[in-house]
Amino acid sequence: KQPIGREINPPYGLGDDPAQAEIVKRIYEEFTHPYRHATLSEIANGLNLDEIPSRRGGMWHVSSVQYILLNPVYIDAGIINADTWQAAQRRLQALRPGPAK
Fold first, then answer.
1. Which residues of 30-40 are buried (b: 16+ CB within 10 A; e: fewer)?
2. What integer is the mean pLDDT of 74-81?
3. How far apart are CA 58 and CA 75, in angstroms?
4. Which helix (H) or strand (E) holds 95?
5. What 8-state DSSP symbol labels residue 16?
6. CA 21, CA 17: separation in Å to the nearest integer?
7. pTM of the model
């Protein structure tokens, strides 16, 4: 819950900085590339190596990349299409540990 009077920040890529939307596209493209599927760790490391600040201005972590990939708000914003989001969800589901189905 947000405390009363506290400003609610939009998700990464949906604020005033259009460069962030390009970073969101990059994350989805690297994760869903048909021939080279980058891991969450590789994507975070690549963003850190390129010195791209995270939402809070610090380093990227696997959880930050995963949060972006799980968030469907980027479809409505027109940053990615539904097919790309679905491809990311299928790949994320395959990464999750658990009993075989």
1. bbbeeeeebeb
2. 93
3. 26
4. helix 82-95
5. S
6. 8
7. 0.85
Question: Given CA atoms 75, 79, 81, 87 in this order, what sign does their dihedral have?
Answer: negative
pLDDT higher than threshold 90 for residue 35: no
**Would you give the DSSP letter of residue 9?**
P
98: left (phi over 0), alpha (psi -120 to 50) or beta: left
Query: Dihedral, CA atoms, 37, 64, 57, 59, nearest 10 degrees?
Result: -60
CA dist 62 → 28, 46, 66, 85 (Å): 14, 11, 6, 18
Distance separating alpha carbons of residues 36 and 19, to the nearest angstrom: 24
Nearest CA among 93, 75, 98, 101 for reference residue 31: 93
Token pair in block for residue 67: 């949060």
